[in-house]
Write a structure and sequence with these properties.
Blueprint: H1 2-17, H2 20-43, H3 55-70, H4 75-87, H5 91-95, H6 100-130, H7 140-166, H8 175-188, H9 200-206, H10 216-222, H11 230-255
Helix pairs in contact: 1-6, 2-3, 2-6, 3-6, 3-10, 4-7, 6-7, 7-10, 7-11
């Protein structure tokens, strides 16, 4: 455990050195809120509520969902793995006395901490500037479930990126898989529109997929909605994390022996 903690510390220091990435993340959240403010300002001009949302609660949702989406930086995992396998440098991860999946999870943990700190400060600052009152639920159990689901969502996304990265052992080009993932996430995470605005049957289908729980459900829980899904969401994400971990282990053990370390 100590060696993975050291890996996390190293990547934390690296991330602090490249502070521009953190600033760009802040700018990204601001741009999302400006876009949402303009869009929903027009929609709420003649309405007080939309699908149970007031204009303030809608903006609070966008602010929280933007935060959860922004702190997911797991795409770098698949990029690093793919590049390493192609040019032959992935052998350095295979040679160290660590499990490769745990190494990349530790890398993600160290890299994500500065984003969390800055983005938490960002949502409060943006809330003040735009006059968005974030009414967090007073139910402690729901808050804990929301944070646990968000954590499991980050863990799943990191494991998914690892899995997609090691597919390079089998497929030379994985950009199609990455594109499919991004397109699915754009809709199901609720980053474009709250899923509550979609037909109930469509939302029920989305609840089967893990992306529903990465940003949308934690955001809804924190603003006091969808409380009946809190406990179930924890178990769903535990199941998805276990499934992707077993799949990644199987794929890695199967194809690593065929990798000669010379690149592709």
């Amino acid at each position: 455990m100590k060696k993975y903690l050291e890996v996390a510390k190293v990547y934390l220091k690296v991330k602090l050195m490249w502070r521009a990435d953190l600033i760009f993340g802040f700018i990204s959240i601001v741009m999302k809120i400006i876009f949402a403010s303009l869009l929903w300002g027009v929609i709420f001009r003649d309405k007080e509520t939309v699908a149970g949302f007031t204009q303030n609660s809608m903006m609070a949702y966008y602010l929280l969902s933007a935060f959860f989406a922004q702190i997911d930086i797991s795409e770098k995992i698949s990029g690093d793995i793919t590049l390493g396998i192609r040019n032959g440098t992935f052998t350095k991860y295979m040679a160290v006395p660590m499990d490769t999946d745990k190494y990349f999870l530790a890398m993600e943990a160290g890299s994500i901490l500065p984003h969390i700190v800055l983005d938490v400060a960002a949502i409060f600052l943006i809330g003040l500037v735009f006059g968005i009152k974030i009414d967090i639920t007073s139910d402690v159990a729901i808050i804990l479930c929301a944070l646990l689901i968000a954590f499991l969502g980050l863990l799943f996304m990191a494991q998914l990126s690892y899995f997609l990265g090691i597919l390079t052992f089998r497929f030379e080009e994985i950009s199609t898989f990455l594109m499919i993932k991004q397109n699915i996430m754009a809709l199901i995470t609720g980053s474009i529109i709250p899923l509550a605005l979609l037909p109930e049957m469509v939302v029920k289908c989305m609840q089967i997929l893990p992306f529903y729980y990465t940003a949308y459900l934690p955001s809804m829980l924190l603003i006091g909605r969808n409380g009946e899904e809190a406990v179930g969401g924890v178990f769903v994400m535990l199941g998805w994390n276990l499934g992707i971990w077993l799949l990644s282990r199987n794929v890695y053990s199967r194809y690593r022996v065929k990798y000669d370390g010379a690149g592709i």
